[in-house]
Design goal:
The chain is an alpha/beta fold. 45% of the residues lie in helices and 17% in strands. This is Substrate-binding domain-containing protein.
Length: 341
């Protein structure tokens, strides 16, 4: 026989409270005394209450959904970060609606409009396409990861320290020239710190260096073509010199490594390579790649913790909202593998 579902009326009858009070327990528990909350919680256990999620959403308008916008799933960093964010369900209980925006503002705005139609309670944004001022205007908690964050809370790696670590390792590897490949990133974006940290160490130790600031594309085909062209340039400019290459991420470091293997059947002695992320591809590459490790699981958990705190605060009868965005910085971990001596 089908079990009878326990209703708010049943809980009210058991506890002696009104149905309105029972509803407040689910939708606005802060409005009840701790003693009354404990009485109702005990009744739920005795009655073996099974929550009707759909009914609760309709009653409260709170969906326990969080929206996520990522640039793409091609870059291993983004796919691993998404994996780690999704894993926080066991800790925080929020479900996720995910869109890959392809770094197109009109597309991402359409996705956000769709997310808001689902009454999401907050957003985690990895894409940097839409300015933080616009994101803040949606009037829901937003946490950014590795993007411009003047008007929203964020969790980022200490990118400057990462650049210092990468240049420091390459400078100790007997390289004749250090080269950092990256996009031409504005200082408002945290990843620009990698460039500044790299340059500062090269100058401090009087190491010859070059910055190659160029867009490497958004697909494997584009990456392969443009990085192959970079190899041609570096070999023409620095023949026989030992080149220490700091790539902007592990995906691009792996493409570089694969192209060198295809040309020479090995990693030539004239190349040292370090990436950035410590995404799984750095361990799974044909030669495990040295990398500046972003603590991806820590960043994901901190982002969800920060977002959860803000969403929970907004549910209170008298919420105390932060006057300024909260910014958390996570230290990187230098991971030395087989692509650096």
């Amino acid at each position: 026989m089908k079990e009878k579902k326990v209703t708010f009326a049943d809980i009210a009858a058991y506890t002696g409270f009104s149905k309105t009070t029972i509803s407040r327990y689910f939708n606005n528990p802060d409005s009840l005394t701790l003693e009354n909350q404990e009485k109702i919680a005990a009744a739920l256990t005795v009655l073996d209450y099974k929550e009707n999620k759909v009914g609760r959403i309709l009653a409260s308008g709170r969906t326990e959904f969080v929206g996520i916008i990522i640039p793409n799933l091609y870059m291993h960093y983004y796919s691993e970060m998404l994996n780690q964010i999704l894993a926080t369900y066991e800790t925080y209980g929020y479900k996720f609606l995910v869109f890959a925006g392809s770094e197109k503002a009109d597309v991402e705005k359409r996705y956000i409009k769709e997310l808001l139609a689902y009454n999401i309670e907050g957003m985690i944004i990895l894409s940097g396409t839409i300015p933080s001022k616009e994101l803040a205007s949606y009037n829901i908690p937003v946490v950014g990861i590795e993007r411009e964050d003047q008007y929203i809370s964020s969790v980022n790696t200490d990118n400057y320290m990462g650049g210092v670590q990468a240049a420091g390792l390459l400078s100790k590897s007997g390289c004749d020239i250090l080269i950092h490949v990256n996009a031409d990133i504005p200082d408002s974006v945290p990843a620009s710190g990698r460039i500044h940290g790299f340059v500062d160490i090269c100058r401090e130790y009087h190491m010859p260096y070059e910055l190659i600031l160029t867009h490497l594309g958004n697909s494997f085909e584009e990456n392969r073509e443009r990085i192959s062209h970079l190899i041609d340039q570096m070999e023409a400019k620095y023949p026989q010199k030992k080149k220490g290459i700091f790539m902007p991420n592990d995906t691009h470091a792996n493409v570089l490594l694969n192209l060198l293997f295809q040309r020479y059947g090995k990693l030539p002695d004239t190349y040292q390579i370090i990436g950035f992320d410590n995404s799984p591809i750095s361990r799974e590459a044909v030669i495990p790649t040295s990398t500046v490790g972003q603590q991806i699981s820590v960043i994901a958990n901190e982002a969800m913790k920060l977002l959860s705190e803000q969403m929970t605060e907004r549910k209170k009868r008298r919420p105390v909202l932060p006057k300024e965005p909260v910014h958390k910085v996570i230290p990187p971990l230098l991971i030395r593998r087989e692509t650096t001596i």
